[in-house]
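B., you asked whether I could sanity-check this one before it goes into the benchmark set. Here's the sequence:
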Amino acid sequence: MNGMDLARRVGLKLGRCKKFSELINCSPHELEKILREKFSETRGIFVAWQVQNIVWGKFDGDKLLLKDDASPNFDDWLECRVFNRREELHIKRAGEKFVGRYVRDDDSGAETYCVDSFARLWGERSATTDGWITLRDAARKISMSVPCDDGDQKFYGLTTRNYIGSDKATGLSGYVDYRFVAIESAWDGD
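And here's what the prediction gave me:
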């Protein structure tokens, strides 16, 4: 029995998809140009890990925007993911450049197995404004605003797609890559 057979036997919900992937190497000022090329027909959400904090924002098809339409400061970025239901660009800082990969689920890619998972974000919704929700953890006195059009729930989370690969020699299977998919509402907590 190989790893994929075992996964099915224990009830893991395996999907099949075709995954296209390519390496990215760019300077900070080339980033939005690459996003316009890669996300030409779609918009997305981004999260950036900065030196001093984590920021969430939107890619509107032309540029990256923070809440209140402010522009991000790429000089502070250590890592970033721009994503939507179909694709993701994931980059990390390497000196003065960003390196990473772009991945897209479509018919031009190689067929693979995948598993979608959901992890709740900390905090409860405390405000909803123009496609943004603010999640607040009152006990820790922290909050964050994330892009989400569904502002009616108490809790929210992040859906990820996990790609599975198998080693033919050992029969072992495991996650070989993953990408962020969407911020979605969770249960209402009642």
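One thing to flag: The helical segments are 3-9, 31-38. Otherwise nothing jumped out at me.
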